[in-house]
Design goal:
The chain is about 45% helix and about 10% strand. The protein is α/β, with parallel strands linked by helices. It binds NADP nicotinamide-adenine-dinucleotide phosphate.
Length: about 280
């Protein structure tokens, strides 16, 4: 311990010298100690998921948190997101719920400002709507529904990618992933249906291919995944026998996301790992 300041003379000078040198040494050592301590802490990857309150988004949250990831789980109405709130209670600090309607670009900007210093390993654009089959019958097309579908499924994932670009860039894994649909495959279309939904997914694929080309030199990989027909509210009314379980669909998509890297950037994966034709 350093003794009290002597009143005068050589002792006072010695005292001042000892205090200054100790201070200097401390100042030099502390950052190194702090850095060593932070290097010892394991890196926890972070994924930001849109539409995390139900369906595939909720299952993505479950499976990523089970892997020990931190999930920024966004929902339009967190107060009504009972399953998501229960998951957050079970995993305090690992499931963080944020309010986000992806149609609201001001809220997207505010959220990206709030997380300005947070690396995000995977930005997962999952939120989507089908626009309602009845609104998409030729000669009875309801064009306002087309605006909604395009804004949610196509334009919002691009806006999210712009808003959270710096976060992804600052992370270790550096991935932007969009849940697309084989319904957006022009090569795979053999029957007419869902004019708005299909074109919104074909268009988001083109946006993501552009982004993959744009961001490759920054070390960011961009991919599209398809869950296959899955038993969520999205497919309400279809026989269960035709549908896959959300658990399987998400496990398959995560496997494909794991395989996304700079070489495979720009790929559109079927759930079984094959590539879907544009
Ligand atoms: N299920 C399938 O068979 C299937 C097949 C191919 C592709 N997909 C794609 O998979 C994704 C997820 O679908 P799902 O099956 O999980 O559907 P879902 O069960 O209907 O869930 C859709 C999610 O998107 C959210 N959402 C919709 N509009 C939003 C907005 N403006 N802002 C924020 N969140 C919004 C919903 O939130 P609210 O609860 O607030 O409405 C909900 O959380 C979609 O992109 C869909 O196109 C699904």
């Amino acid at each position: 311990m350093i003794s009290k300041l002597p009143r005068k003379g050589i002792d006072r000078i010695r005292w001042l010298l000892v205090v200054s040198v100790s201070g200097l040494l401390l100042a030099m050592l502390l950052p190194a100690v702090a850095q060593e301590a932070s290097e010892d802490l394991p890196y926890i990857p972070t994924v930001l998921i849109t539409g995390a309150n139900r369906g595939l988004g909720l299952e993505f949250t479950r499976q990523y948190v089970d892997r020990g990831w931190r999930v920024i789980a966004t929902a339009r109405r967190p107060d009504a997101a009972d399953d998501l709130n229960a998951l957050a209670e079970k995993h305090p600090g690992l499931v963080i719920i944020e309010q986000l309607d992806v149609q609201d670009f001001d809220v997207i900007d505010a959220l990206s400002e709030k997380y300005a210093d947070t690396p995000i390993d995977i930005l997962l654009n999952n939120a989507g709507i089908n626009g309602g089959a009845r609104n998409q019958m030729f000669r009875k097309l309801q064009y306002e529904a087309f605006d909604e579908v395009l804004l949610t499924n196509t334009i919002a994932p691009l806006k999210m990618s712009e808003a959270f670009y710096e976060n992804v860039l600052a992370s270790q894994q550096k991935k932007i992933v969009t849940v697309s649909s084989s319904e957006g495959s022009i090569g795979g279309a053999t029957q007419p249906r869902l004019y708005f939904y299909r074109s919104s997914k074909a268009a988001v694929n083109m946006l993501m291919v552009n982004l993959a080309l744009q961001l490759k030199r920054k070390g960011i990989s961009v991919g599209m995944v398809n869950p296959g027909p899955t038993d969520t509210d999205f497919m309400a009314g279809l026989p269960k026998s035709m549908l896959r379980s959300p658990t399987d669909a998400v496990a398959d998509m995560i496997r494909n996301i794991d395989g996304l890297n700079l070489e495979t950037s720009g790929t559109f994966w079927q759930y079984d790992g094959t590539i879907i034709p544009w």
